[in-house]
Tol-pal system YbgF family protein
Amino acid sequence: MATYKKRGYKPKTKEEIEHVAEENSTTAEVFNTLDETASKTEDWVIKNQKYIFVLIAIVAAVVLGYLGYKEFIAKPAQTEAMNDMFQAQKYYNEAIVATDKDSLFNLALNGGEGKYGMLDIVSEHSGTPAANLANYYAGMAYLNMKDYKNAVTYLSNFSSNDEDEVFGPIAKGAIGDAFVQLNQKEDALGYYIEAAEMRKNDLTTPMYLYKAGITALDLGKAADALKYFKRIKEDFSSATEAIDIDLFIGKAEVLANK
């Protein structure tokens, strides 16, 4: 019966008395166990407090060290690197639209007017985001200058973050372009596919699917080429690459069925 649990109620029957005694005994055991555990914990803390304080100090030092590094070393280093990179980036941008491209790309790579070039940024500011970006610009400059091996080297050293939708795919695709020129078309195909899948968007995805399709056809992989061309038609019908895509689909179908 539940009535014996009401406040002020005294158990009367033998059954109720035994039940209450059992409950009190169980409760006492629980509290005794908690007391023993707490006591053991206190003893352990007292016995090991030296090590605990050392551990806390180490964690605090790591956290403060990281924050200090980020605030007083990483940020100033990045600012200095970006300032050093300004002129080199200016040369690179001018080279893109200039007639005499090679001389400006050379200045972008090696510096001019007493300023750093991209190669200097890579070596002097290693580990900074600016040095990472300089790898990209150096690789693209070498690609434009037809120095394909150096293009592959520097573009391979560039890494993009998850928020970047353009630089990463273009870097991978540019490595593919370099491998095509080096007559390593299997390698090129792999990079084109990687570039197409890396950051799916309406600009770079259809462009590298198209290049992957052309390269696959050249390698005798018509079925793969057909897959890439059809994807352009189905998913990127408004892209420039989709204008004559039916012709390429037809060609790939013929070759695939031979």
Q: What stands out?
A: The mean pLDDT is 78. Residues 132 and 159 are 7 Å apart (CA to CA). Residues 14-97 form the longest helix (84 residues). The chain is about 75% helix and 0% strand.
